[in-house]
Structure formats: C-alpha cells, structure tokens
Design goal:
The protein is an alpha/beta fold. It folds into two domains: 5-166, Rossmann fold, CATH 3.40.50.720; 171-294, N-(1-d-carboxylethyl)-l-norvaline Dehydrogenase, domain 2. It has helices at residues 15-24, 40-44, 53-56, 70-78, 84-87, 101-113, 127-131, 143-154, 169-197, 202-209, 217-228, 238-254, 260-274, 286-292, and strands at 5-9, 28-32, 48-49, 62-65, 92-95, 117-120, 123-124, 135-141, 157-162. Strands 1, 2, 3, 4, 5, 6, 7, 8 and 9 form a nine-stranded mixed sheet that branches. α9 crosses α11 (217-228), α9 packs across α12 and α12 packs antiparallel against α13. The termini are far apart. The mean pLDDT is 96.
C-alpha cells in the first residue's frame, strides 16, 4: 500500500466517522474492531477489514487508534496481535483515545524502541462533529511525529492545537477539558432544577441562556440534551465519562493540584453508574439533581424503573 495508507483501530462512535472521512479524502483505509460487524459498513464504502490490530497496519505506515481506555489501547498496541511490532521502523501511531498522560508517554517510549513515532491527538467534539470534520484536536509529541500527523489530522477537524513535545501534554488538556464540560453539565442540571421547581419550563430556560450569557457549543449542545432529557442514544456514555474524571483526578493528585469540584463530579458519576445509568449519555447526571429536588423523572430514566 502507498503513502496514503492509514489503519484505523477502534470503530466506536468516533472511529467510524473518522474512518469514513479518511476514505472520502482518498486514503486507503484498513480498519480493525473487536466486533467485526461495526467494520462491515466501511468495507462497503471501500475500506479493508483486518482480523487483528497487527494485520491492519503496514510496515512504516500510519495507524490511528480510537479506543475506550488505557488497558484496551495498550493491548491493541503492545499485546498479542498488537500493531506496534508490525508498524516497525518509520511508522507513526496517532493516538486519538482519551487516556492518561502516562500511557501516552509509555507508548511513545515503546514505539521509539521500534524506530517508529507516536503522537497523542485526543479530540473535542461529539460524533456529529466528527462526521462533518468539525473536531477540535489536541496534539503533542515529537516535532517530526507531529509534522507527519498534521496533514491527516487537518482532514478530520476544524483546528489542530499543538500542546508541546511531551507526549502526555495533549492528554492533560483533554482530561482538563472534559472536567470543564462536566462542570458545565452539573451547573446546567442545577439551574434547570431550580427553575423547574419554581414553575419555569426547562426548554425556555435553555433557549434563553444559550442565546445570552452561555451561547457556546458546550452549553448549547449539552443544554439541549438536558432540557429534552435526550440521554439515548448516548454520544458519550456515562461510564466512559467516569473513567475520564478518574484520570483527571489521578493526574491532579500526581501533580499535587487540588480539584474538589472534580471530586464531587466523580461521585455524581459513580452514583449514576450505581443507579444503572452507565450506558446513558454522561449528561444524565442531571437526573440525580432532579430526583433530589423532588422533580418527577420519566419512568424509563428514574431510579424506580
């Protein structure tokens, strides 16, 4: 395969639209996913399907990973059937997963031992943004790795921001941003509960604030979901949000940075998981605020259901 060959490992809510956009841009895309059924639609669009992460990559080529957590990412890269050895000298791994900075640093070292390059490139944006190439992409790693990754990443997002040579730098920014988003979700949840308890309709509150003081994507996107309680299908499942806030807290602890709001938000997420809401969108932490305020929650979403 030629210089435009790219492997995509992981076809979740983000991996599928990213692979599809690369195909549309003329890249020769090979995909791997643990459940093969998610790969079949891309094969119909011109992609190739591999039976293992190693089989997806070409020696000296490019692989993009979009995987759910640190352990899954390490297994796909370094475990049996992993792609790191197959990628070999001259290869490039673009990790778009939300993982700990330490995992990215470890992978950068492991790839360097094999003569290949590594960059962290986690993104901000939900699946609908990925589909229309409107992601905001954080980037960090060695200069030569970033230079090689940039043309590919420019096909996927509206902006790529360089956060330095430390492979873990982009992950720190991503975890920080997810913390800020969840803090905004909690603020919206409490605001809507206060207004609704006093007879003010949720949608009216959303329409006003997202046109006035809070006319920004995070409030507009998540505010709509909260106002309508449109927690299914999830753009970002709650259990993955809990993983991200856990990683943010661990990074903060290692850096000796107190984050009491993050501690509270983690408990919010933990409670939601305990209530059986792990597969809902992570903005469904709003339900606990409503229930605590005595506001009726629709039966399919309530604790009693």
């Amino acid at each position: 395969m030629g210089a435009n060959a790219v492997a995509v490992v992981g076809l979740g809510n983000m991996g599928t639209p990213i692979a599809r956009n690369l195909l549309a841009s003329g890249y020769a895309v090979t995909v791997y996913n643990r459940s093969r059924d998610k790969a079949e639609p891309l094969a119909a669009e011109g992609g190739a399907i591999a039976d293992s992460p190693a089989a997806a990559v070409t020696s000296g080529g490019v692989v993009i990973s979009l995987l759910s957590n640190d352990a899954v990412l390490e297994q796909a890269a370094l475990g049996a059937g992993g792609f790191a050895d197959a990628l070999g000298a001259g290869g490039l791994h673009i990790s778009m997963s939300t993982v700990s900075p330490e995992t990215s640093r470890k992978l950068a070292e492991e790839h360097a031992k094999r003569g290949s390059l590594f960059v962290a490139a986690p993104v901000f944006g939900r699946p609908d943004a990925a589909a229309i190439r409107k992601l905001w992409i954080c980037l960090s790693g060695a200069p030569e790795a970033k230079a090689r990754a940039l043309p590919i990443l420019n096909e996927l997002g509206q902006r790529v921001q360089d956060f330095g040579d430390d492979p873990g730098g982009a992950n720190i920014v991503k975890l920080s941003g997810n913390f800020m988003i969840l803090a905004a979700i909690e603020a919206m949840a409490e605001t809507m509960a206060l207004c609704e308890k006093n007879g003010i309709e949720r949608q009216t509150v959303y329409d006003f604030f997202t046109s006035a003081n809070f006319a920004c994507p995070a409030y507009q996107s998540y505010g709509r979901i909260i106002a309508q309680r449109a927690y299914e299908p999830a753009g970002f499942v709650l259990e993955l949000g809990m993983k991200d806030i856990r990683l943010a807290r661990e990074t903060a602890a290692a850096s000796k940075v107190p984050m009491p709001v993050a501690d509270f938000l983690f408990l919010r997420l933990q409670d939601a998981v305990a209530q059986g809401r792990s597969k809902l969108d992570w903005s469904a932490i709003e339900l606990a605020t409503a229930e605590a305020a005595g506001i009726p929650v629709p039966a399919p979403l309530s604790k009693a259901s």
